[in-house]
Amino acid sequence: TQGALWGGRFSDGPSPELARLSKSTHFDWQLAKYDIAGSRAHAGALAAAGYLDEAELIGMLDALTELERRVVAAEFVAADSDEDVHGALERGLIEIAGPELGGKLRAGRSRNDQIATFVRMYLRDHSATIAEQLETLVDVLAQQAEHNIQVIMPGRTHLQHAQPVLLSHHLLAHAWPLVRNLDRLRDFDRRLDESPYGAGALAGSTLGLDAVRVARELGFTSSSPNSIDATASRDLVAEFAFIAAQIGIDLSRLSEEIILWNTKEFGFVTLHDAYSTGSSIMPQKKNPDIAELARGKAGRLIGNLSGLLATLKALPLAYNRDLQEDKEPIFDSVETLELVVPAFTGMVATLTFHGERMRELAPQGFSLATDVAEWLVKRQVPFRVAHEVSGSMVQAAEARGVDLDGLSDDEISAVSEHLSPEVREVLSVDGSVATRDGRGGTAPVRVTEQIAELRERLASL
Ligand code: ARG
């Protein structure tokens, strides 16, 4: 009966519908290499504790090497009778090493501590891959910022023209959240650095196995201090799902802007042909599909996080089979990001920005009104009054259907006793950005420093 792993107390095999529901080999097979690595370390611990002699240990390790070869070559695959990857691999081991030796490996471990360990190993590997991909994206944003340092664009709040800013400053505002995500991944890896292997089903084992030794062999600094927590918790899996969702959200926000910038109305960017798509009916179309897919997949990443949190809520200690439901969402989040980030990076790297168009729009919508108010403040006018005066100047310009610099000298003077035509000195977008020169400001000198600071942070991660 099935039950390669647990048949003993059952007189009947699992019903076909139970077997179908219970089966996880179609998704947990990708943990096979971690399972085999765990088995190697576990064999060492069994030998050290006297449960395998020298020859048995060598035989076991050789058999595991052969098993791994077969798995990689797809010579050994999941059978219909296998419930999960752990049971399947024990079946494979016994095929190679025989039931006598192969049957010894399971002592002192449980699928509960195994799976908790393998999920950590999987997340560790893939979060490193995702971090590398994100670093490339941050670097590409920094390069675009450097390349376009002279471009001034309309900075917006509420999607309305607010104040002119450097395009570079805006692009870097998308890079910093990604740097924080990189920092989160690194921080997450520190918490991940404890191996649950040795926790057994929940309470440890009576065999005196050295869990720290196993942990070290699997690349962890130490083993979990509490065997119940080790097998029952998935907060770290949820933490990864959050980071993945946050990365998705951050890419989605830039995607949304690229989609807008790419419209006829904005005309801020041109997408490279290799990073855009066409229409099956409209010959002229060139669509920003990468940005749209990135935006769409953010929803999926959020869904993976919410689903997982809902699964974890109210689970009593220790292991419950519900925990098997952590795998598919987390695999999906990993696969989604590993697919999206490189395409997104290529799209950003090959974007052409239209500086002239951005500059043309930058002073429109009275975006220099704050500069007028601060010009008055520098002349000792209280800001409350300065705000009012600048607002009246906007009103006058709006009534005439011109921008602030379209008002005549007389019209400017007529707005308020505090105003004079000298205010024209701040009615330029270049002056506006150049004078916002505090730390974190949009002045070219500060933004150039910011690019260097970003690169330093990236290098120090
Ligand atoms: N496949 C399970 C999981 O992903 C591990 C197996 C534990 N099964 C059990 N009956 N205790 O969590």
UniProtKB/TrEMBL annotation:
InterPro entries according to UniProt: Arg_succ_lyase_C, Argininosuccinate_lyase, Fumarase/histidase_N, Fumarate_lyase_CS, Fumarate_lyase_fam, Fumarate_lyase_N, L-Aspartase-like
EC number, as in UniProt: 4.3.2.1
Pathway where it operates: Amino-acid biosynthesis; L-arginine biosynthesis; L-arginine from L-ornithine and carbamoyl phosphate: step 3/3
All copies of domain Fumarate lyase N-terminal, residue ranges: 9-303
Family per record: Belongs to the lyase 1 family. Argininosuccinate lyase subfamily.
PROSITE patterns: FUMARATE_LYASES
Presence of keyword Cell cycle: no
Gene3D superfamilies: Fumarase/aspartase (C-terminal domain) (1.10.40.30), Fumarase/aspartase (Central domain) (1.20.200.10), Fumarase/aspartase (N-terminal domain) (1.10.275.10)
Primary subcellular site in the record, as a coarse category: cytoplasm
Biological process (GO), any one: L-arginine biosynthetic process via ornithine
Organism in which the protein naturally occurs: Pseudoclavibacter terrae
Catalytic activity: 2-(N(omega)-L-arginino)succinate = fumarate + L-arginine
Domain of life: Bacteria
Keyword Cytoplasm: yes
Subcellular location: Cytoplasm
GO CC terms of this entry: cytosol
Keyword line: Amino-acid biosynthesis, Arginine biosynthesis, Cytoplasm, Lyase
Residues annotated as domain Argininosuccinate lyase C-terminal: 366-434
HAMAP family on file: Arg_succ_lyase
GO molecular function: argininosuccinate lyase activity
Protein name: Argininosuccinate lyase
